[in-house]
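Moderator note: this is an archived Q&A kept for reference. The question asked for a predicted structure of one protein chain; the sequence and the answer are reproduced below.
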Amino acid sequence: MSRTEEFQELRPLLFSIAYRILGSVGEAEDAVQETWLRYEATATEPRSVKAYLSTTVTRIAIDVLRSARVRREEYVGAWLPEPLLDDPYADPERAAELAESVSMAALLLLERLSPLERAAFVLREVFDFGFPEVAAAVGRSEAACRQLVSRARRHMAAGRPRFEADREEREKLASRFFEALREGDVDGLRGLLAADVSMVGDGGGKAPQLARAVTGAQNVARLLGSVFPRMARIEVTFEPHELNGQPGAIFHDRDGKVLHTLALDILDGRVQTIRTVINPEKLGHVGPVANAWAIHREVQAGRPS
């Protein structure tokens, strides 16, 4: 097998590691590409290609995360991970861990960890790497890595995301939610929302966004039930699509360009959290991006421009 073939075979794993460490599709793709360039330039053949590439992409991602954390501290408004349409890596034996770890709720918890804790946790708890492999990847001793993972476990357990265990029930509720949204049915929406539901938007100062999180079933239902009918009048549409392993939808303008994504956390038969990403810099991988400001002005005016 050639180096190119070996790399392509492992690319899904490398991307999935990088995305969980970074929470960014673009940065994860860049980390994978840089990993390939380093592998291509290596004169000697590594004993284990998987170990070499996993170590390389992890170290690149750690370096990127360290600089990204400074930018995120200065971010305008709420910061959310870039929406992931499909996780390219699949492992039937770890399907539950993989699905949970890619959710927006889990990625936001990972944001609270140090770069080394995050990388060690992802490699050990999500992808089941042995501690010798984790130690090689993060450049610390095995004992130090055990401490990193232990601290990370405690942080993650304290705010561990919980989702509807029954996938079919979750999808049924999401279908009802999006039908009520399409109809502008405020009462129908209210009945599907948890009493303390929270709606958060990420515009990054680059697009219209919520000034703060909207909380409470009545407030969220009223907002959704009033805004989408106005958006529909200027031909904004949406298609349900799983995002980060959870129910969601992609919204498009009249030209089919991506306006924003919306993801749902569902538990106990109710929508617990709604997260929307409208920052155009986080949507390029989803498709051509709409002019959110222009659409916002049309919605405010109540008529097409």
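Archived answer notes: The beta strands are 193-202, 214-215, 237-240, 248-252, 258-267, 270-277.
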